[in-house]
Amino acid sequence: MQWDIFCRVIDNFGDLGVCWRLASQLARRGQGVRLWVDDARALSWLAPAGAAGVQVCTWRTPLALQGVRPGDVLVEAFGCNIDPEFIAAYVSNIKAKGQKCSWINLEYLSAEGYVRRCHGLPSPVMNGPGRGLTKHFFYPGFTDGTGGLLREPDLPARQAQFDRAAWLAQRGVAWHGERLISLFCYEPAALTALLRQLAGAAQPTHLLVTAGRAATAVRLLVANEISLNPLWNKHNMLLISYLPTLAQDDFDHLLWAGDVNFVRGEDSLVRALWAGQPLLWQIYPQDDQAHLAKLDAWLDWLGAPASLRRAHARWNADARAPLAAGVQAAADALFDDADLASWRTTIRAARARLLAQNDLCSQLIDRVQSP
Asked: Would you name the residues annotated as active-site residues?
């Protein structure tokens, strides 16, 4: 089948990353895919080699079709609203071919209860050129009865063959067996506390910092720590490597290499779950604090121990607001070795549950091919 996936870029690492993973996985399963995106610049490093079977198309409004004929399936990612010109052409195409409408409204990932209730529900189109057609909501999720998570069929096999020492050497990281922590974040208020904890720890830590906001924040905080106390890391317990931008495959490798992974947003959370190592998730903050309910729902699904809940509360705390009761005690140290052992057990149990479920791409194909 021919799929048209539409994506408007809000966060280069998020929306576009999810849509590219979906497009490339569909193509690997024999589907034809056009990815319509309004800003494809990040693909130059997210997916520098492209993917066989995926055509990237520039999405401008109004959309000039220029002889492009809509395919069999429309995927409207994250409520991005496909142009009426394309919808009109799609209606004409499926009528001429006698096909049913396959129009998917791909939603954001959440563990909240509404996801299971709303997954697969119809959304009749009441006006415009698509009037009379029906979209269907497709909700990614962590449980049966949802759309599942993106996962390549060969992911466990590739991960089992991964050689982290070789990969680190290829990236120019001088690793000598110290604990590895990957850092992909915004600017959490607890970042200073993390850096101080690692610098004062009894065992050495090598912090692998991703390019962009995380690297900028760490560089500023390290400079500030040195200005306040030139000997703050005098025993060199904290080593820092600043990484270049990473393609999606190499971002997976980073998470496989990490003994602890700090991630942000949607795509990297899923990839960190597949990595099976202790993780801390910085959820995208919303002004109305709705993200905290989403975070709590995910921790509930995870079966997170108390120490992991406290660490997440601290890592996601607003610098302008007081910490919740029970969180302040963990303000100086986000975790200890015993915490990490219990977190690893929790994450791997969750991964096992997820591996037993059908993946998102397979579910999407099954849905549009069903009578």
From this structure: 15, 266
